[in-house]
Design goal:
Largest sheet: 2 strands, parallel
Distance between the termini: 40 Å
Shape: flat
Number of helices: 4
Low-confidence stretches: none
Structural class: alpha+beta
Order of helices and strands: EHHEHH
Helix content: 40-55%
Oligomer: single chain
């Protein structure tokens, strides 16, 4: 399975410097097996990248195997 770390936000405009620093720390602290299929990059989206990432994570959670099996949360607001 391929994994990605995508850096976003105001600091992502520092692209090369930020990505290089993050890569250095990740590869220094992580086991080689954990980083074998890891890509670290800065986003190419601008202001809406955080929103896009949040939607992607929520979609994976809701429609992934664990989300489909999990019963819906109580949405009534009564707590019962």
């Amino acid at each position: 399975m391929h994994r990605s770390i995508i850096l976003a936000g105001p600091l992502s405009e520092l692209r090369d410097d930020l990505v290089s620093a993050v890569r250095a720390v990740v590869y220094q602290r992580a086991l080689p097996l954990a980083t074998r299929k890891l890509t670290i990059t800065a986003t190419q989206l601008k202001g809406g990248s955080g929103l896009h990432g949040g939607i992607a994570l929520a979609t994976q959670d809701v429609f992934g195997p664990a989300g489909i099996v999990r019963p819906p949360a109580d949405m009534s607001g009564t707590g019962e």
